[in-house]
Amino acid sequence: MKYSIFRALVACTALVSSVESVSAADYGSFPGVTIDAKLIGGQQYEGLYGRIADWEAATGGKVNIISKKSHFEIDKEIKSDMAAGTTSWCVGSNHSSFAPQYEGLYVDLNELVPADEIAEFVPGNIKASTVNGELLMLPRAQFDVSVLYYLKSNYEDEEKAKAFEAEYGYPLAVPETWDQVKDQAIFFADPPNFYGTQYAGKDEAIVGRFYELLVAEGGQYLADDLRPAFNSDAGQRALQWFVDLYEAQAVPAGTTSYVWDDLGQGFASGTVALNLDWPGWAGFFNDPESSKAAGNVGVAVQPMGSVTRTGWSGHHGFSVTSDCENKEAAASLVRFLTSEESQLAESAGGSLPTRSAVWEANLAAANSGDDAFRAEALAAFAEGAKYAFAVPPIAEWVESTNIVFPELQAAIVGDKSVEDALNDAAAEVDEMMQDAGHY
């Protein structure tokens, strides 16, 4: 990819544009129309929603946000709506990992969004937003793959370096492998005042983290015939990593109840040494108004397992329901929330865009030398994206995680052995996949 300074300047000008530039784009006119929306909420997602007032001023339409919750809670609510037949709301937050399960809920946006506009997105993101030939969402500037955030001061302390090398037999440096992360997390930990690392411990979040360590260890979540395959030697090594850190008290005791906002706030508190996390947190972590770690944050490519680097990835987006009364207005809002101007604004906080031009603009701006931290973060995420891989593209992915995560928790807290937990989870997933007709 070539990075054009001219395009960067044009794009950055769009970032500070006002309602007039929104009007110049053809988002239509919808006076008197109210769009009900169910949106993901959380610190790293909120900035974009402040721009909705610009869409309202430009089009005459109104947006009524009827739910704003974590994606896990939104997912439960959407499934409840589908079961009850109450899906007349219009715009919903979606995710590439969740999209295959909402059969019939959302319209094919190929019918509502101009083809030349769709072509402006990164092709891989559009491909991952397409299920059975239908474009079920437009990607927002929230392409996710995690890299390693760390407190730089731990690697600048000569006494710590000497003590670490004496105990572990190799020099203290930003970890390259997950074994090194474990060593260092245990070494740095001083509970309850300071922890070596942390991890999401429930819902799809813990299963996703287990999944990517499983792949990094050379394993598979599902075999080619879709039978569960995670109860393997690779799966046991991956889960044991979580267990060892919990037993050593290198992670907070409450980590089994944590999801993404808990982790973000934890690292921002300055009391966690190493944190695998998403791009949307980068700006938050290095902002002195929100983070005690600001000025002390380093960013590095995600560590290696035995075979490869971790790279569980996906992206967020917005969809239009089939039962929406005014699909044109809903699609207009979705186009606005994923527009070049919106993606520039959202990615300014550290998240990764899904439009090619915005990638170019961000990289050019970061490499101009004005923001060393942003350049470091983007370089880490650009490298990390090379190892990105999605979850299995099946409707039952989330249902499988609801089966697996309590078993992972049971092993982490010591209620089951690693082997028994994985075997029990695999047996339940196998039954679920058989009931779904996969074999």
Mean pLDDT: 91
Structure classification: alpha+beta
Q: How many beta-strand segments?
A: 10
Could you describe the largest sheet, including whether it forms a barrel? 5 strands, mixed
Total helices: the number is 19
User: Helix and strand string, N-terminal first?
Assistant: HHEHHEHEHHEEEEHHHHHEHEEHHHHHH
CATH topology of the largest domain: D-Maltodextrin-Binding Protein, domain 2
Question: From the coordinates shown, what is the CATH architecture of the largest domain?
Answer: 3-Layer(aba) Sandwich
Please name the fourth-level CATH homologous superfamily of the largest domain: Periplasmic binding protein-like II
User: End-to-end distance, in Å?
Assistant: 43 Å
What's the level 1 CATH class of the largest domain? Alpha Beta
Residues in helix, %: 40-55%
- Give the spatial strand order of the biggest sheet: 2-1-3-10-6
- Unreliable stretches, pLDDT < 50, 5 or more residues? 1-21
The amount of beta strand, in percent, is 5-15%
Question: What does the overall shape look like?
Answer: globular
What report would you give on this structure?
44% of the residues lie in helices and 12% in strands. It is globular and about 70 Å long. It is built from 19 helices and 10 strands. The chain has helices at 5-15, 19-24, 46-49, 52-59, 71-84, 115-118, 123-128, 158-168, 178-188, 203-216, 233-247, 260-268, 282-285, 327-337, 340-347, 356-366, 372-384, 397-412, 418-435, and strands at residues 34-40, 62-69, 91-95, 130-131, 134-135, 138-145, 147-151, 274-277, 297-300, 313-320. The longest helix has 18 residues, at 418-435. Helix 10 packs across helix 11. The strands form 3 sheets. It has a 5-stranded mixed sheet with strand order 2-1-3-10-6. Strand 4 and strand 5 (134-135) form a beta hairpin. By secondary structure, the chain is of the alpha+beta class.
